[in-house]
Write a sequence for this structure.
């Protein structure tokens, strides 16, 4: 079994696409519509055939409440792996990313958290080599 797709709810898919591609550096993988529904995914340029992240429009009241509660708690909606959190932090900050937590050492990893501007906190994690 593999993880091929996971998703985050976003308040604006176009804004999310710009953020996830221009600021985080992902590439658009799929983008098609049927009526009012839009299927939109991004992937890592390092693994274009790897897992995809769906940027799903959050038009679900229950999901909106959950998303807002996570954000207010400071809980990330998604975590992405990095080989160098400090370098990624500097690259994304130069592209306009707003960090709620600059790189910090925590148990077993170095992390940073940022606001995706679409209703979510995102955590970047560099695992400590064992």
């Amino acid at each position: 079994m593999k993880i091929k797709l996971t998703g985050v709810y976003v308040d604006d898919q176009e804004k999310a696409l710009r953020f996830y591609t221009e600021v985080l550096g992902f590439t658009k993988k799929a983008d098609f519509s049927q009526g009012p529904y839009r299927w939109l995914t991004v992937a890592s340029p390092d693994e274009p055939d790897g897992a995809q992240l769906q940027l799903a429009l959050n038009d679900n009241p229950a999901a909106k409440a959950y998303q807002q509660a996570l954000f207010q708690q400071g809980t990330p909606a998604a975590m992405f792996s990095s080989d160098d959190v400090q370098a990624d932090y500097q690259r994304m900050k130069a592209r306009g990313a707003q960090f709620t937590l600059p790189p910090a050492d925590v148990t077993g990893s170095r992390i940073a958290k940022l606001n995706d501007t679409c209703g979510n906190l995102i955590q970047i994690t560099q695992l400590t080599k064992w």
Summary: Strands lie at 5-10, 27-34, 37-43, 52-57, 78-81, 98-106, 109-115, 121-127. The chain has three helices and eight strands.
